[in-house]
Amino acid sequence: AGMLLSALNQARATSKAIKCINNQKQLGASAVMYANDNQDFLPILPDIWTYWFVKLYDYNNSPGIVLCPSSTKPYVNNTASTFEWKVSIGANSNLLPIEGTGVKKLSQMKHPSQTMLFADVINIIDDTSDQWVNAPPYAALYNTLNPLHNGFWNNTFADGHADKRGRNNIGPSN
Questions:
Q1: pTM recorded for the entire structure
Q2: Residues of the chain falling short of pLDDT 50
Q3: What's the CA dihedral at 13, 89, 24, 149 to 10 degrees?
Q4: What backbone torsions phi and psi does residue 34 show, to the nearest 5 degrees?
């Protein structure tokens, strides 16, 4: 019975990791479609109270895609729109900037297939998820990549593809 339970738990974990990476692929596709409709720009936020996931909602119609099913403590936002957003996938704030700060077109990125756009993230102060992550070498003070999937985290890259990564293969920064 113990071996069967272990196998069942492993199958559940694998299923959650697959759902997470599918969510991130949808986020990547949403971001690329947004850029195609907005002169090659990713969402530019007018202020810190405008949420990137709300800007992408029109391209996916699914508030659930910003939540990894393996996350036990998502960031909950009731003010972003009519939905209760549960967020555990963070955006690279170097690529989704506040208006007037470091705005960059997708076509200006040197390595879009290696530049992290979204990732599983956790706030190390209160052990909850957050909506932002800064890719190294600009690591945010409190947020870090969250290895929810057997020591790995899922990422979406600026070209729209998604895969899993570990500490030894983060990739270059743009």
A1: 0.80
A2: 135-142, 172-174
A3: -20
A4: -60, -50
pLDDT tens digits for range 135-147:
443 444 445 778 8
Q: What is the DSSP code (8-state) at residue 24?
A: H
pLDDT digits (tens, 9 = 90+) for 77-92: 665 556 667 778 888 8
Query: SS3 letters for 42-68?
Result: CCCECCCCCCHHHHHHCCCCCHHHHCC
State whether the Cα torsion 172-42-68-78 is positive or negative: positive
Q: How many CB atoms neighbour CB 159 within 10 A? A: 16
Beta bridge partners of 128: 123
Structure tokens at 96: 């989704």
User: Kind of pairing, strands 89-92 and 132-133?
Assistant: parallel
What phi and psi values does residue 77 have, to the nearest 5 degrees? -125, 115
